Amino acid sequence: MSRDRHRRGGPPVGASFPIAAALTLSVAGGTIVAAPASGQEPISNSSASAIITPEGMTEAEIDSAEVYLRAALAGPKERSFHQILTEASLVVDTADTAVSYDIVVRYDPDRYHDPHAGLYPVAFEDQFIAWGKRVSLLTRSTTFRSSRFYLQDISTGRTSWIFAEETHRLYPPEPLRYPVLVEAEERTGQQRWLKLIHAVEPQINLRIMSTWLRLMRDEPRDVVVARELAAATAAAAGTSSAGDGNP
Are strands 217-218 and 158-163 parallel, antiparallel or unpaired? Predict the structure, then answer.
């Protein structure tokens, strides 16, 4: 069934959340974050620096890429992440002159349940950074271009975003050797990347955390798209006027 690829984020909420002291949280019967997998395969010497394909993906390729995205955000043993994750979508960035995709993720902490714990113990900012680091690696692995990463807490309506390129500067802190780029439906290659993605360490130092927080924009996607389209329209009108010799 065809789905709308231009879904919008919800309204922003002014309330802020306290920064959790650490994201490494375990509860009986469920794990909040994954530890590095033992016996991880060595990473290929090949660098993920191949040319990004400029063409847009087909509907089937988008569906397949979204399966990969969801697998990156919630690993097979991360029951808590599976509980709260409600949407992981790739939406065309209509304001970009080239074909690129926004990564739109929505989660509901109210869906978290554990017989030995109460409320979901991870603050919005920490969830954004935890998944933002995974998005940094995922967007290095794909042959399609990524524009922004949006995260929305649907229990409050709060939405924040960051440019995909900015996540690359924030994570990893040290250069790595990456597996080769993968196509949307290349599951074997994706599994190599998923081992790397799920091994992302949950800890983050305060200096890097402050940079993440500074680059987080509290703004719904529809506002961002409208602003970018208006700017592009104004720029095109200015170019046209200059070409006509009008002041």
Answer: antiparallel
